[in-house]
Specification:
The chain has about 180 residues and is α+β, with helices and mostly antiparallel strands. Helix content is about 25%, strand content about 25%. A four-stranded mixed sheet has the order 1-4-3-2, covered by helices on one side. The chain has a two-stranded antiparallel sheet with strand order 5-6. A hairpin with an 8-residue loop joins β5 and β6.
C-alpha cells in the first residue's frame, strides 16, 4: 500500500506551499493559504458566489484505516472537495477530505483518508490549474487527458453505501 492510511493535513499544507514557492504554480504575486473544514459541502450560496467563492471536487487514490476495528484498505475513489477564492491579493483554499465507512463494521463512522505524496501533489496541481483558470483567466492545460492510471478501469466498483460524499450527494464517482 503506497502512502499512509493516516490523515496528514501537514502533508497537504507543505505540498501546497512547495508548489507555490518552489514551482511557482500560482505566480501572480498573491498570497495563497490552505485550510481545512470537515463540514463544508459543495453548494455555494448566492452570497458566497458574489464574494467570489468557487468549488472543485477531485477523486483521488487514498488509504483508510477504520477507527473502530483498525482494518486498513485502499480506495481509488476518495472524494476531496476544495473551496477557493481570490480577494485582492489574498487567496484562500478550504479543503475537505471525505471518508469511507468500514465494510466490516457498518457503524456510520467514516475513516479519514491518508494519501501518498504523489497523490497529494497530483490533486493540488489540478486545483492550481482550476485556480489559474477561474481566478486569473488562464487556459486550463491540465484538463486535457491526464486521469491517473489507477482511475476507472482497474478499480473495484464504488460502494456508495460506505462513501461519506455519497451520503451528502456530492460524490464525484457518480459523474464518471
Amino acid at each position: 500500500m503506497k502512502g499512509s492510511a493516516e490523515w496528514l493535513p501537514s502533508l497537504w499544507k507543505e505540498t501546497f506551499e512547495e508548489l507555490l514557492d518552489d514551482d511557482n504554480e500560482l505566480d501572480h504575486g498573491d498570497q495563497w493559504t490552505l485550510n481545512f473544514s470537515y463540514t463544508q459541502g459543495d453548494t455555494l450560496t448566492t452570497e458566497e458566489r458574489k464574494r467570489g467563492w468557487k468549488t472543485f471536487c477531485h477523486c483521488a487514490f487514498g488509504n483508510l484505516k477504520c477507527p473502530s476495528c483498525s482494518k486498513v484498505w485502499s480506495s481509488a475513489k476518495v472524494t476531496v472537495l476544495f473551496r477557493y477564492r481570490l480577494r485582492g491579493e489574498r487567496g484562500v483554499v478550504i479543503m475537505r477530505p471525505f471518508g469511507q465507512a468500514c465494510r466490516s463494521c457498518h457503524d456510520d463512522t467514516y475513516a479519514r483518508p491518508g494519501f501518498s505524496e504523489e497523490e497529494v501533489e497530483r490533486a493540488l496541481l489540478k486545483l492550481c490549474a482550476k485556480i489559474r483558470k477561474n481566478c486569473y483567466g488562464e487556459t486550463d492545460d491540465n484538463d486535457v487527458g491526464g486521469e491517473p492510471p489507477h482511475s476507472k478501469n482497474n478499480s473495484k466498483p464504488h460502494e456508495s453505501d460506505l462513501c461519506e460524499a455519497c451520503s451528502q450527494g456530492i460524490c464525484r464517482v457518480k459523474e464518471e
